[in-house]
Amino acid sequence: MRPLDRAVAGHPLTREDAIALLSLPDEQLPELLAAASRLRDSGRGRRITFSKKVFVPLTTLCRDYCRYCTFRKDPGEPGAHTMTPEEVLALVQAGARLGCKEALFSLGDKPEALFPEHRAFLRRMGHRTTLAYLREVCELVLEESPLLPHANPGVMSERDLSALREVNVSMGLMLETVSERLLGPGLAHDRAPDKIPARRLKTIEWAGKLQIPFTTGILIGIGETHAERVDSLLAIRALYERYGHIQEVIIQNFRAKSTIPMRNHPEPSAGDMLRTVAVARLLLGPDTNLQAPPNLSPRTYPQLIRAGLNDWGGISPLTLDHINPEAPWPRIVELRNATEAEGSELRERLAIYPEYVGRPEFLAEGLRPRALAYTDADGYVRQELEQWRTW
Question: pTM for the whole thing?
Fold first, then answer.
């Protein structure tokens, strides 16, 4: 039986099936999308979610030099900055006035290992590590605003994860790829010690042991093969099956930018993106929360829904996507119209997904009252608290 026939018939995909489907001709793509959509409907139904967030770029300093990144900076470069607690509070409080629920912290990996200027900043703040400083500002957000933190701080130890768990309703780390080949000279992860796949997988595994609702995903189009792409998804699936903590899997597409070493590298096509989302759904199963950032695929909202996603990710009425600043967030009314046109309902969620809100083992005791106050019996944001329907 052909891989497409197996997918259409609802049979589980083998690794070889999944690799083959990533090369499926465009004329057969509608059948693949229909199979993925049916599987999504059987597990997640026709409800598509998003989180209303403030994007907090705590520090743009990073010891990694990924060849596709515009976020990271060295000290002295334009845009190099580490936010003070006062700056963080001003930003999240402004977001709260607009009805945001999530404070998404993004930051470079371990800049103190490389930059004496950053070590001096941390000393002034009373800390030795960026992750200890992150914990302090997350705690401050909880004390001085109604938002709930979700941190994406890079590779972490078990001790770091445990400390941050107390002040974050969920956390995240993009696996990106299991390809060690891409660490080679001139390739995407050259000079990026925190992109060693084993280190990232270990962080995700520790998060599972600590029962942290966790977001991860893959970055496509950075030079990986189809086999490496599938192996990355299978590695995520294995960790989810073991620990049950992966609340969301993101399929993110590489975007070329004029300021990066990979500026001439080709971007994934819309068809490649759709095939990857569909194959991810078929590999990860009906219950996985599957996301593709809508600001990176602005003309394919209906097709992405048909490919099996059930989440649009975090969207901000206030802040840029500091990872892809050239790609503006869509207006929620656009996503709502596209979602409803496909026969689905758009609902707001917290940074922690609905199915984890009511499970005390996945949420620190001090965070539970706020999460429960925001949500209905199904774990979604209560409709009277939603302030997005005309945004």
Answer: 0.97
